[in-house]
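Hi L.,

You mentioned the student needs an example of a multi-chain input paired with its predicted structure. This one should do, with 1040 residues in total across all chains.
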Amino acid sequence: MSLKYPLLAITLTSLSITSTFTLAETAEEKGRNIMIEMDKRDTGWQDMQAGMQMILRNAQGEESVREIRMKSLEQENDGDKSLTIFDEPKDVKGTAFLSFSHVDKDDDQWLYLPALGRVKRISSSNKSGPFMGSEFSYEDMGSFEIDKYSYNFIKEEPCGNLTCLVVESFPKDKKSGYTRRISWVDNSEYRMQKLDFYDRKNSLLKTLSFEGYQQYAGQFWRADKLKMQNHQNGKSTELVWSGYQFKSGLDDADFNKNALKRAR
Amino acid sequence: MSERFFKTLLHRPLLTVLAMLALIVFAAMGAQKLVFKSDYRVFFGPENPQLQAFEAMQKVYTKSDNVAFVIAPKDQVIFSPDHLAAIQKITTESWQVPYSTRVDSVTNYQYSHAEEDDLLVEDLVSDPQSMDAAELQAALKIAVEDPLLQKRLISPSAHVAVVNVTLQLPGVNPVEEVPAVASKVRAIRDQIVAEHPDLDVMLSGVVMMNTSFAEASINDSSTLVPLMFLVVAVTIGLMLRTVTGTISSVVIILTTIAATMGLAGWMGFYLTGPSAAAPTVILTLAVADCIHILATLFYEMRHGVEKRKALLDSLKINLQPVFLTSATTAIGFLAMNFSDSPPFRDLGNMVAMGVMIAFVLSITLFPALLMLLPLQVKQKQEEDSDMMLALSGFVIRNRRILLPAMTAILIVISLFVPRNELNDDSVKYFDQRVEFRQATDFMQDNLSGMATIELSLDSGVSSGINSPEFLQTVEDFSNWLRTQPETEHVNTITDIIKRLNKNMHGDDPSYYKLPDSQELAAQYLLLYEMSLPYGLDLNNQLNVDKSSTRIIGTFKNLTNNEQIDVENRIAAWFAQHAPQYQLTMASPTLMFAHIGQRNIISMVSGTLVALLLISLLLGFALRSVRFGLISLLPNLLPAGVAFGIWGLSVGQIGLGLSVVASMTLGIVVDDTVHFLSKYLYARRNRNATSEQAVQYAFGSVGRALWVTTFVLVCGFMVLAQSTFKVNAEMGLMTAITILIALIVDFLFLPPLLMKLDNEKNITSTDHSAQGAAHVS
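Structure written out for the whole complex:
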């Protein structure tokens, strides 16, 4: 088309540019809308479970592996509920962590320690520390809620074979370890392709990249591999996911203090 | 050939001046490439085993580069709402310091405690302004009783606090990284002090030390170098009473420094504390060449020789001795390449280069300048030759007493050399005028010092740090280390685990002990790690595999031998109690503890090589094996005596002093060369007796020797005023050595010659020593 009717092609291009302008959407709104779209496309999975291997590497090249299972229950008007069960290393096997994520207040968290035989409630507003000594913070692992951030659309740019929407998000939580994150979301399926984290002094701290997206339950995209590289200390952490299951009928009873003890 | 060269040179002085200046300008342009590396690590070569161990440890855990804000309220009360608010503000602001990865203070300390079945982990102080007296008292009690805080972040009587900022410097651009951190923390300090005038806030820590290296040197070059120029100008002006000579000498010195530093820039050198002293040292050494040439020139002109002819004569007469003394000086400095510490190699190479450049300029640019500028010589009687004659008379008369007396004095003083103890404390590299030193001394007096040993203990198995046996070993060791008299603070993971065990049992104090199963310890740590905020994690104490842990001991300021003794006792403890675990020890303190010894061993061989080369050169110049051997005594004794005096008075030797023997060797040798060559000239060419030859030597070079010695001693005494104590001590010791060398040459060498050389007259046709005949 463009060869035969170059003029038409130009007209169409300019039209599309004009239309972007005429919509008069601010960068903030556009950024937020992209994230809402991403969230919307990932709504309705009801419940989910998967296994995960966590591979930690330090700057010296030493490696360490941890294994956990995760279960999540989708919540309509609040943050999701999640249950994390630790399998490896052996000495934490059976430890289980229950979390009710909230948009407007601190999350509720309980931990079951099998060696102690007790469920302990953790009262802490800290979510920015490292998850199991990895380069992921609990903040990175927790469920994503639109209202926890404010947004800014930056640009559109190619990412691999796809085109990505680049959106900045600013956490509202004062205790966050970040000033901002920059996400690359592909414009075809609205999947997170890459995330840059900027620390409290706004220096690039970490980059999270997503590999091997697969679609589950005919709708939900999940990456097989997440790789977090810390640029400041040279350490990295890889998450390898397996055995994704959706809509297997979990309910609130699977996400309470009693469920914690049974979890192993 | 040299005569034709000098004739051409003086025939077109302007052309010579312009050509040399063009070369100098080109060389000097390299100076813009010369940058200052503000990093204590420059003192260690990449092959240094302690540095390698430390770098490896920093990769496994987190880096321990830091800045410490030391906060001292005038009313000595940290736990007041206002002062805690200030500390909290410093804590928050410190997250904005470039490359900061962690901030620790009494306010953000993660206080864990139990409340029924809940575990609470929160900032020890979150809202200071709303705290009442009871709450303040409770927080104070927790802080001063916590083994993790006490003496580290809060003084035992809670009158001084520290906010510790850990930094992860990329090390890509040390020229910008360290100053960026320093200017940010200073801005925070200034802001806090402006808001809280009742607080003293000082800055210590590794990064402040690094920045002080550069700042002390810059400070030096803006005070010491001008002072040095003044000394030189005044000395030459007073001694030789010539304006043209003074101006020309200053030009030679300036151009020598510019060309040397420029070439150093072109050659990719970087500046460090010691090598930044190069201009001062070069300045001092370059003067001697000019003085010798001027002295002969004036001598000739006073005897009615026309200027051009007098200059030519002076160049001809001085070419060999000036070359010889420059070469021996250069060899002495080049021997610093044996040093284990790169900055001293750089200093040696830069000065050697400068000395040779000074030689070239003083026989080209210098005569050309003197040719161009008006030069007048007053007919004036020398008053010092009488003084020199009196001195030689005294020496000759009293030679039978002087020889044994001087021998006894020199030997007795040298016996005190072993009283010197090695001590390289990087904090004491700066004197009390430096802000960093004041802050660190204050911190040392009130909390703990900067002397640390980091220990990594490896269990050898994944998650091994959780095993009860391993934890018990760490606990036993920590307790043992705390009982050592040198110990100020021990940072150990077992304190956290014990506290968690207590927290998990409703804060029952009887549970403040290690858990009895691996699973419990592992699950406590998992729980704890999940509740920590950004940057306050355990990655600085545990490796990723949780197979090894880092224990950090902080100690009182110790000498190197005491530090190495602590290191050996720690190793012995583990060999006896826990040989199954692999222990690694590393820290900047240990690096400095070993560098002195390593450097002295390597410098001994360097000095021996320099001595061999210089003796060969001397033997060749004096054409005599016998006098070459005799010259060894006056060349070696001064350093021995100087270190003896040091042993008697100061008694502590650091990195800077370990290079003094080799660097002074090349300088003191000059006096011996001049004296011996005149002596031999008289013996060989004038058929003089030993006594007459001594008298002749005194008469002809005595004055030149004491003038150059005076300039050198002044120059190195100026360097001794440096706030960077490595350079200051190096300067002081060099000044002492050079002064002693003159005393030895005047009071010991002549009686020795008269004793060893009094049997027969030497008759020789060789004129080798004539080349050195000049002056006065």
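You could point out the following to them. Residues 224 and 241 of chain A are 5 Å apart (CA to CA). The first strand of chain A starts at residue 47 and ends at 57.

Best wishes,
N.
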